[in-house]
Write the C-alpha coordinates for this entry.
Amino acid sequence: MLTLLKTIILGIVEGVTEWLPISSTGHLILVGNLLDLGQSEAFTEMFNVVIQLGAILAVVVIYFWRLWPFHTAKNAAEKTQFSYRASGGFTRKFQDFADKYLYMDKIVLWLKIAVALIPAVLVGALFDNWLEAHLYKPVPVAVMLILYGVLFIVIENWNRGRKPRISRIRQISWKNAFLIGCFQALAVIPGTSRSGATIVGGLLLGMSRTVAAEFTFYLAIPTMFGASVLKLAKFGLHFSAAEAVILLTGMVVAFVVSIFVIRFLMEYIRKHDFKVFGWYRIVLGALVLVLAAAGIL
Protein backbone atom coordinates (compact mmCIF):
# COMPACT_ATOMS: atom_id res chain seq x y z
CA MET A 1 0.00 0.00 0.00
CA LEU A 2 2.85 2.40 0.84
CA THR A 3 4.50 1.69 -2.51
CA LEU A 4 1.23 2.41 -4.31
CA LEU A 5 0.90 5.73 -2.47
CA LYS A 6 4.44 6.67 -3.50
CA THR A 7 3.59 5.73 -7.10
CA ILE A 8 0.52 7.98 -7.04
CA ILE A 9 2.65 10.86 -5.75
CA LEU A 10 5.18 10.31 -8.55
CA GLY A 11 2.34 10.17 -11.10
CA ILE A 12 1.07 13.51 -9.83
CA VAL A 13 4.60 14.96 -10.03
CA GLU A 14 4.92 13.74 -13.63
CA GLY A 15 1.50 15.05 -14.66
CA VAL A 16 2.20 18.49 -13.22
CA THR A 17 5.83 18.96 -14.16
CA GLU A 18 5.79 17.44 -17.66
CA TRP A 19 3.82 20.38 -19.06
CA LEU A 20 4.82 23.22 -16.78
CA PRO A 21 8.33 24.35 -17.81
CA ILE A 22 9.95 23.19 -14.58
CA SER A 23 11.48 19.80 -15.57
CA SER A 24 9.60 16.56 -15.01
CA THR A 25 12.75 14.40 -15.09
CA GLY A 26 14.43 16.68 -12.58
CA HIS A 27 11.46 16.53 -10.22
CA LEU A 28 11.13 12.75 -10.57
CA ILE A 29 14.82 12.33 -9.75
CA LEU A 30 14.54 14.62 -6.72
CA VAL A 31 11.26 13.19 -5.42
CA GLY A 32 12.43 9.66 -6.25
CA ASN A 33 15.43 10.20 -3.98
CA LEU A 34 12.98 10.87 -1.15
CA LEU A 35 10.37 8.24 -2.09
CA ASP A 36 12.07 4.92 -2.75
CA LEU A 37 9.76 2.58 -4.68
CA GLY A 38 11.72 -0.40 -3.43
CA GLN A 39 12.47 -1.58 -6.97
CA SER A 40 15.71 -2.07 -8.87
CA GLU A 41 17.66 0.94 -10.17
CA ALA A 42 17.03 -0.22 -13.75
CA PHE A 43 13.26 -0.31 -13.16
CA THR A 44 13.28 3.12 -11.51
CA GLU A 45 15.15 4.66 -14.47
CA MET A 46 12.69 3.06 -16.88
CA PHE A 47 9.70 4.14 -14.76
CA ASN A 48 10.82 7.78 -14.79
CA VAL A 49 10.63 7.77 -18.60
CA VAL A 50 7.78 5.39 -19.43
CA ILE A 51 5.40 7.07 -16.98
CA GLN A 52 5.38 9.87 -19.57
CA LEU A 53 3.15 7.73 -21.81
CA GLY A 54 0.23 8.68 -19.59
CA ALA A 55 1.05 12.34 -20.03
CA ILE A 56 1.32 11.89 -23.82
CA LEU A 57 -2.15 10.38 -23.96
CA ALA A 58 -3.54 13.53 -22.36
CA VAL A 59 -2.18 15.62 -25.27
CA VAL A 60 -3.65 13.18 -27.78
CA VAL A 61 -7.07 13.38 -26.12
CA ILE A 62 -7.14 17.17 -25.80
CA TYR A 63 -5.76 18.00 -29.26
CA PHE A 64 -6.95 14.97 -31.23
CA TRP A 65 -9.02 16.85 -33.80
CA ARG A 66 -6.33 19.47 -34.36
CA LEU A 67 -3.81 16.73 -35.17
CA TRP A 68 -5.83 13.97 -36.85
CA PRO A 69 -4.99 14.37 -40.58
CA PHE A 70 -7.73 12.21 -42.15
CA HIS A 71 -11.32 12.87 -43.17
CA THR A 72 -13.93 11.10 -45.25
CA ALA A 73 -14.63 11.78 -48.91
CA LYS A 74 -17.91 13.38 -47.82
CA ASN A 75 -15.93 16.13 -46.07
CA ALA A 76 -13.61 16.79 -49.00
CA ALA A 77 -13.11 20.43 -49.96
CA GLU A 78 -14.77 21.64 -53.15
CA LYS A 79 -11.47 23.02 -54.43
CA THR A 80 -8.09 21.32 -54.57
CA GLN A 81 -5.63 21.97 -51.74
CA PHE A 82 -2.73 22.33 -54.19
CA SER A 83 -1.70 25.47 -56.05
CA TYR A 84 -0.16 23.29 -58.77
CA ARG A 85 -2.29 20.49 -60.22
CA ALA A 86 -0.38 17.68 -61.90
CA SER A 87 -1.73 16.44 -65.21
CA GLY A 88 -1.23 12.76 -64.44
CA GLY A 89 1.02 10.09 -62.96
CA PHE A 90 1.73 9.37 -59.30
CA THR A 91 1.66 13.06 -58.32
CA ARG A 92 -1.87 13.50 -59.64
CA LYS A 93 -3.04 10.31 -57.92
CA PHE A 94 -1.61 11.53 -54.63
CA GLN A 95 -3.25 14.94 -55.05
CA ASP A 96 -6.61 13.29 -55.76
CA PHE A 97 -6.22 11.08 -52.67
CA ALA A 98 -5.16 14.04 -50.52
CA ASP A 99 -8.08 16.19 -51.68
CA LYS A 100 -10.47 13.40 -50.85
CA TYR A 101 -9.09 12.10 -47.54
CA LEU A 102 -6.37 14.35 -46.06
CA TYR A 103 -6.09 17.70 -44.31
CA MET A 104 -2.84 18.79 -45.94
CA ASP A 105 -2.21 21.54 -43.39
CA LYS A 106 -2.14 18.85 -40.69
CA ILE A 107 0.12 16.64 -42.79
CA VAL A 108 2.51 19.57 -43.14
CA LEU A 109 2.34 20.13 -39.37
CA TRP A 110 3.33 16.51 -38.73
CA LEU A 111 6.20 16.82 -41.20
CA LYS A 112 7.43 19.91 -39.34
CA ILE A 113 7.19 17.96 -36.09
CA ALA A 114 9.29 15.22 -37.72
CA VAL A 115 11.91 17.81 -38.69
CA ALA A 116 11.93 19.12 -35.10
CA LEU A 117 12.60 15.58 -33.83
CA ILE A 118 15.90 15.17 -35.66
CA PRO A 119 18.26 16.99 -33.22
CA ALA A 120 16.92 15.22 -30.10
CA VAL A 121 17.09 11.81 -31.79
CA LEU A 122 20.73 12.36 -32.74
CA VAL A 123 21.77 13.74 -29.34
CA GLY A 124 19.83 11.08 -27.44
CA ALA A 125 21.32 8.26 -29.50
CA LEU A 126 24.87 9.53 -28.94
CA PHE A 127 24.77 10.60 -25.29
CA ASP A 128 21.86 8.86 -23.51
CA ASN A 129 23.97 6.33 -21.57
CA TRP A 130 26.60 8.92 -20.62
CA LEU A 131 23.97 11.36 -19.40
CA GLU A 132 22.28 8.72 -17.26
CA ALA A 133 25.58 7.76 -15.68
CA HIS A 134 26.83 11.27 -14.92
CA LEU A 135 24.03 13.85 -14.79
CA TYR A 136 20.98 12.11 -13.31
CA LYS A 137 21.91 13.46 -9.90
CA PRO A 138 20.60 16.29 -7.67
CA VAL A 139 23.39 18.83 -8.23
CA PRO A 140 23.31 18.86 -12.07
CA VAL A 141 19.49 19.02 -11.88
CA ALA A 142 19.70 22.00 -9.51
CA VAL A 143 22.16 23.85 -11.76
CA MET A 144 19.91 23.44 -14.82
CA LEU A 145 16.82 24.44 -12.84
CA ILE A 146 18.50 27.71 -11.87
CA LEU A 147 20.03 28.38 -15.31
CA TYR A 148 16.76 28.03 -17.21
CA GLY A 149 14.89 29.88 -14.48
CA VAL A 150 17.14 32.87 -15.09
CA LEU A 151 16.66 32.47 -18.85
CA PHE A 152 12.87 32.59 -18.53
CA ILE A 153 13.01 35.83 -16.56
CA VAL A 154 15.56 37.45 -18.90
CA ILE A 155 13.69 36.46 -22.06
CA GLU A 156 10.30 37.58 -20.72
CA ASN A 157 11.80 40.95 -19.77
CA TRP A 158 13.37 41.22 -23.22
CA ASN A 159 10.04 40.30 -24.84
CA ARG A 160 8.03 42.85 -22.89
CA GLY A 161 6.13 45.10 -25.28
CA ARG A 162 7.19 43.14 -28.36
CA LYS A 163 4.52 41.81 -30.69
CA PRO A 164 5.00 38.12 -31.59
CA ARG A 165 5.86 37.48 -35.25
CA ILE A 166 4.31 34.00 -35.09
CA SER A 167 0.83 33.92 -33.58
CA ARG A 168 -0.50 30.76 -35.26
CA ILE A 169 0.85 27.23 -35.53
CA ARG A 170 0.74 27.25 -39.33
CA GLN A 171 3.12 30.25 -39.40
CA ILE A 172 5.95 28.11 -38.00
CA SER A 173 8.47 27.69 -40.81
CA TRP A 174 10.53 24.58 -41.53
CA LYS A 175 13.63 26.41 -40.30
CA ASN A 176 11.92 27.41 -37.05
CA ALA A 177 10.68 23.85 -36.54
CA PHE A 178 14.26 22.57 -36.81
CA LEU A 179 15.55 25.27 -34.45
CA ILE A 180 12.87 24.37 -31.90
CA GLY A 181 14.13 20.81 -32.20
CA CYS A 182 17.65 22.02 -31.41
CA PHE A 183 16.36 23.63 -28.22
CA GLN A 184 14.53 20.41 -27.36
CA ALA A 185 17.80 18.50 -27.74
CA LEU A 186 19.20 20.56 -24.85
CA ALA A 187 16.59 18.94 -22.61
CA VAL A 188 18.46 15.63 -22.57
CA ILE A 189 20.24 17.21 -19.59
CA PRO A 190 18.01 16.53 -16.56
CA GLY A 191 16.68 19.65 -14.89
CA THR A 192 16.46 21.53 -18.18
CA SER A 193 12.79 20.68 -18.93
CA ARG A 194 11.80 19.59 -22.41
CA SER A 195 8.84 21.97 -22.44
CA GLY A 196 10.97 24.69 -20.86
CA ALA A 197 13.70 24.41 -23.50
CA THR A 198 11.29 24.43 -26.45
CA ILE A 199 9.22 27.29 -25.02
CA VAL A 200 12.40 29.34 -24.47
CA GLY A 201 13.36 28.59 -28.06
CA GLY A 202 9.90 29.52 -29.34
CA LEU A 203 9.93 32.84 -27.50
CA LEU A 204 13.39 33.68 -28.87
CA LEU A 205 12.16 32.88 -32.39
CA GLY A 206 9.27 35.33 -32.02
CA MET A 207 6.41 32.95 -31.23
CA SER A 208 3.56 33.89 -28.96
CA ARG A 209 3.42 32.04 -25.65
CA THR A 210 0.38 30.02 -26.73
CA VAL A 211 1.99 28.93 -30.03
CA ALA A 212 5.26 28.02 -28.30
CA ALA A 213 3.41 25.97 -25.67
CA GLU A 214 1.06 24.29 -28.16
CA PHE A 215 3.87 23.25 -30.52
CA THR A 216 5.73 21.93 -27.47
CA PHE A 217 2.74 19.72 -26.64
CA TYR A 218 2.56 18.39 -30.21
CA LEU A 219 6.28 17.71 -30.33
CA ALA A 220 6.03 15.80 -27.06
CA ILE A 221 3.91 13.04 -28.64
CA PRO A 222 6.58 11.40 -30.86
CA THR A 223 9.48 12.50 -28.64
CA MET A 224 8.17 10.96 -25.44
CA PHE A 225 6.64 7.96 -27.15
CA GLY A 226 9.96 7.17 -28.82
CA ALA A 227 11.92 7.63 -25.58
CA SER A 228 9.47 5.38 -23.73
CA VAL A 229 9.69 2.63 -26.35
CA LEU A 230 13.50 2.71 -26.22
CA LYS A 231 13.49 2.50 -22.42
CA LEU A 232 11.05 -0.42 -22.49
CA ALA A 233 13.18 -2.20 -25.07
CA LYS A 234 16.29 -1.61 -22.97
CA PHE A 235 14.63 -2.80 -19.75
CA GLY A 236 12.73 -5.66 -21.38
CA LEU A 237 9.05 -6.55 -21.20
CA HIS A 238 9.39 -9.08 -18.38
CA PHE A 239 7.65 -7.27 -15.54
CA SER A 240 6.77 -8.75 -12.20
CA ALA A 241 3.16 -8.24 -11.10
CA ALA A 242 4.28 -5.54 -8.63
CA GLU A 243 6.27 -3.70 -11.32
CA ALA A 244 3.35 -3.79 -13.76
CA VAL A 245 0.97 -2.36 -11.15
CA ILE A 246 3.44 0.42 -10.26
CA LEU A 247 3.99 1.39 -13.90
CA LEU A 248 0.31 1.34 -14.90
CA THR A 249 -0.74 3.25 -11.78
CA GLY A 250 1.85 5.95 -12.45
CA MET A 251 0.76 6.28 -16.08
CA VAL A 252 -2.96 6.53 -15.24
CA VAL A 253 -2.35 9.16 -12.55
CA ALA A 254 -0.05 11.11 -14.89
CA PHE A 255 -2.75 11.04 -17.60
CA VAL A 256 -5.54 12.37 -15.36
CA VAL A 257 -3.37 15.09 -13.82
CA SER A 258 -1.99 16.10 -17.24
CA ILE A 259 -5.50 16.76 -18.58
CA PHE A 260 -6.05 19.43 -15.94
CA VAL A 261 -2.51 20.86 -16.06
CA ILE A 262 -2.46 21.34 -19.86
CA ARG A 263 -5.79 23.16 -19.76
CA PHE A 264 -4.64 25.26 -16.82
CA LEU A 265 -1.37 26.24 -18.52
CA MET A 266 -3.01 27.29 -21.81
CA GLU A 267 -5.50 29.43 -19.92
CA TYR A 268 -2.82 30.87 -17.64
CA ILE A 269 -0.43 32.02 -20.37
CA ARG A 270 -3.17 33.88 -22.22
CA LYS A 271 -2.98 36.47 -19.45
CA HIS A 272 0.39 35.90 -17.76
CA ASP A 273 4.04 35.38 -18.70
CA PHE A 274 6.42 32.57 -17.71
CA LYS A 275 8.40 34.48 -15.11
CA VAL A 276 6.67 32.78 -12.18
CA PHE A 277 8.04 29.46 -13.42
CA GLY A 278 11.48 31.02 -13.70
CA TRP A 279 11.41 32.15 -10.06
CA TYR A 280 10.11 28.75 -8.97
CA ARG A 281 13.01 27.03 -10.75
CA ILE A 282 15.56 29.33 -9.13
CA VAL A 283 14.17 28.83 -5.62
CA LEU A 284 13.88 25.05 -6.05
CA GLY A 285 17.37 24.78 -7.54
CA ALA A 286 18.88 26.75 -4.66
CA LEU A 287 17.03 24.57 -2.15
CA VAL A 288 18.31 21.40 -3.82
CA LEU A 289 21.89 22.69 -3.67
CA VAL A 290 21.51 23.38 0.05
CA LEU A 291 20.02 19.93 0.70
CA ALA A 292 22.71 18.25 -1.39
CA ALA A 293 25.45 20.12 0.49
CA ALA A 294 23.85 18.96 3.74
CA GLY A 295 23.87 15.36 2.53
CA ILE A 296 20.07 15.05 2.56
CA LEU A 297 19.82 14.47 -1.21
Remarks:
- The radius of gyration is 21 Å.
